[in-house]
Amino acid sequence: MLKVEHIGIAVQSLAESLPLFEKLLNTPCYKIEEVESEQVRTAFFATGVNKIELLESTSPEGVIARYLAKRGEGIHHIAFEVQDIESEMKRLAGEGFELLQEKPKRGADNKLVCFLHPKGTKNVLVELCQEVEVNK
């Protein structure tokens, strides 16, 4: 694990939450992106080396909608940047952690991602992130 990549916060509405976080963090949102496969719209803020990701569901059946119905708005996950996501997934599986995906998948903000089941991480949803290299 290289560093905390971002903290994900589940929100009911980006339209309502963006102005709040822009005031709180004293910086504008730098990217809004929809991840259709996850039924989520994300908004990112950067402050120094730290990032915050707001997550809004695009479907009543989406994972964020289910999270909000059960727990309400708040911290959803913590993401760690890794050098090689596939080797880190293999290492963590070997250590007994349950991976929620067998292979990394494309996530927001130009990342490959994989989540760990929170039952093995003291009820914290952990995301592994690896920057996708852009072909030059």
TrEMBL record:
Origin superkingdom: Bacteria
Ranges for domain VOC: 3-131
GO terms, molecular function: metal ion binding; methylmalonyl-CoA epimerase activity
PROSITE patterns associated with the record: VOC
Entry keywords, A to Z: Metal-binding
Entry annotated with the keyword Metal-binding: yes
GO biological process per UniProt: L-methylmalonyl-CoA metabolic process
Family: Belongs to the methylmalonyl-CoA epimerase family.
Protein name: VOC domain-containing protein
Provenance organism: Flavihumibacter solisilvae
